[in-house]
Amino acid sequence: MFQQIRLKAWSEGLRSQPSLPLRVELWNGQRFDFSPEAPRVTVRVPRPGALRYLLSPSLYTLGRAYVEGALDVSGRASDMIAVVNALAGDPLAARQPALGRLLGALGDALGDALGGGHTRQRDARAVRYHYDVSNDFYGAWLDPNMVYSCAYFENGSETLAEAQLGKIDHILTKIGLRPGHRLLDIGCGWGALAIRAAQRYGARCVGITLSDNQARLAREQVQRAGLQGLVDIRLQDYRDVGGQFDRITSVGMFEHVGVRQLPAYFRRMATLLAPDGVAMNHGLTSTDPDGRGVPHGGGEFISKYVFPRGELAHLGTVVKAMQQGGLEVRDVENLRRHYARTCAMWSENFEANAERIKGLTDARRFRIWQVYLAGCTHAFAHDWISLYQIVCGKAGRDPAPIPWSRRYMYAQA
């Protein structure tokens, strides 16, 4: 009875706000509509105990309720995220000091719960949880080259496949890759960048990953391309790599490193980089100056269900860590808008291939990824998180390999 009273008050308060394309259906057949138009999202509450998720909404609690099957939600993923965000309230409220401190502490709390910091074994487990779903699962919604990172849209009208290839070329042009260069790709995914570097530039490439599935498929791709003499795919931690490289790329990987470990990570990169070498870090960042998490529990959802042990640092923290690690920042480019479009395309592909994907994984993981991809689209579009490409070299060196003008980055192929 008490929950029913709270529900009535909640629904009346919600109706006083701008209309939402939402319908809530209770276990007893009672129905609440919050817009005169047909609902785009329907939430079915199967039992009275599930009302608590609606009465104390956040991106985490509602996302968890959907993933775990406590609430049944139907509608397009993008509409679901928009409605959930509205229910959770103003996302900027999460940046208030008390809640902000709580969100900022989530990474440390998660680390404590899992038994400590970023060791090789724990990082490998976290990476495999995320990436070793199945290659067919990722292939159902990624581009044909299986590139799982922010694409680059030269004009904004490119297909996903064109924009992903454009991203790889943009990176290889930025670092000034030349024939015969020795390239290390940290977090090589399914091998697309290393293969392109070998095919187009004749570079000798080492790609490393902690994912068994990625390494296996990447090696198959290398063999099909006839590049065994130029590309070496290794199942290896970055801390265990030896030698020196003319160029180093790290694309969508350093989010797994841990904020406190960033200076050591970049120090390792500097050690592996040749004296006149060039490196690039392409990775996600927090847009909060104090490095707090994604607003309103979104970060907590990602930590629990998507990226265990993942942490985002603010751009300023990254630049500082690079300097502490012995690297000089030479160029910075913000690709947040590009990642919003990339995630939107992934989410659309996921929705379009939903029936196939359901046959490739269990219902729980399907719901996790459905919410995650749509949520990331919203987060990038609203400046909750960002993506930066940072070109760097060894500190204290003459950056001779880099031209005086940035024009070379956009030269026509």
From TrEMBL:
Pfam family, one: DUF7884
Active site, per annotation: 376
CDD domains, per database record: AdoMet_MTases
InterPro entries per record: CFA/CMAS, CMAS, DUF7884, SAM-dependent_MTases_sf
Ranges of residues in domain DUF7884: 10-85
GO biological process: lipid biosynthetic process; methylation
Gene Ontology molecular functions: methyltransferase activity
Record keywords: Lipid metabolism, Methyltransferase, S-adenosyl-L-methionine, Transferase
Highest taxon, organism lineage: Bacteria
Family statement drawn from the similarity comment of this UniProt entry: Belongs to the CFA/CMAS family.
Protein name: Class I SAM-dependent methyltransferase
Organism placement in taxonomy: Bacteria, Pseudomonadati, Pseudomonadota, Betaproteobacteria, Burkholderiales
